[in-house]
Design goal:
Blueprint (H helix, E strand, L loop, with lengths): L4 H4 L9 E7 L5 E7 L1 H10 L3 E4 L4 E4 L8 E8 L6 E7 L16 H22 L5 H8 L1 H21 L2 H21 L4 H12 L1
Parallel strand pairs: 1-6
Antiparallel strand pairs: 1-2, 3-4, 5-6
Helix pairs in contact: 3-6, 5-6
Length: about 200
């Protein structure tokens, strides 16, 4: 992690405090907002767990100090104006004091949707940029027939896992199949919103 942040932050702008947006490092969802001063940022960087400064209690506090639901720091970024921090962290339990996953009431459906959307977006970027060292790029280069062949292969793997193998194998093979389905959709110009729209039609 960048320990030079302490000197780069514009501490004077908000009386030695800066807002710190906490984002789930795995799911990319925003979990909460807190405030940091120099000491809380320093401890977060050194200890690998998120520390804040409480404006109401006027003291440092570590997220999870009572509940045990710590935030394990993965990385900390400073915005372009040098007055806001983005903390990517792995939550060790519910973040909100109410027991919810985050402080904004994002439901499980939205979280799952974000995961699929993120995967779809990555595939779209591969199609746009075509990086050389990428399996997805190789599929796009070989064309729709190759992609469809892989879908057929992965479908067979899903059936095999469902009937003869472990639950974890079924999970793994199902994700492989969804990934290749998404590649086919991107190749044909189908957007993620098209898929969501069709799903919503079938809920009625």
């Amino acid at each position: 992690m960048n320990k030079k942040l302490l000197k780069q932050v514009n501490w004077k702008k908000m009386n030695d405090l800066v807002p710190a947006i906490i984002q789930d490092a795995n799911w990319s969802r925003v979990l909460m907002l807190g405030y940091m001063n120099k000491e809380s940022l320093k401890r977060s960087l050194e200890e690998g767990k998120v520390w804040f400064y409480s404006r109401s209690k006027q003291r440092l506090w570590q997220k999870g100090e009572k509940s045990g639901n710590f935030l394990k720091v993965e990385n900390i970024y400073l915005d372009c104006d040098k007055d806001t921090l983005l903390v990517k962290a792995v939550p060790q339990g519910p973040v909100c004091h109410t027991g919810k996953v985050d402080c904004f009431g994002i439901g499980k459906d939205e979280i799952v949707l974000e995961a699929f959307m993120d995967l779809f977006n990555v595939i779209e970027q591969r199609k746009k940029l075509m990086p050389q060292v990428s399996y997805t790029t190789s599929l796009f280069k070989e064309g729709l027939n190759k992609i469809c062949t892989k879908i057929g292969e992965e479908s067979g793997e899903v059936i095999k896992a469902a009937t003869k193998e472990t639950k974890q194998r079924l999970v793994s093979e199902s994700v492989d199949l969804m990934y290749h389905l998404f590649v086919a959709c991107v190749e044909r110009g189908v957007g993620f919103s098209d898929l969501v729209g069709e799903i919503n039609k079938r809920k009625k």
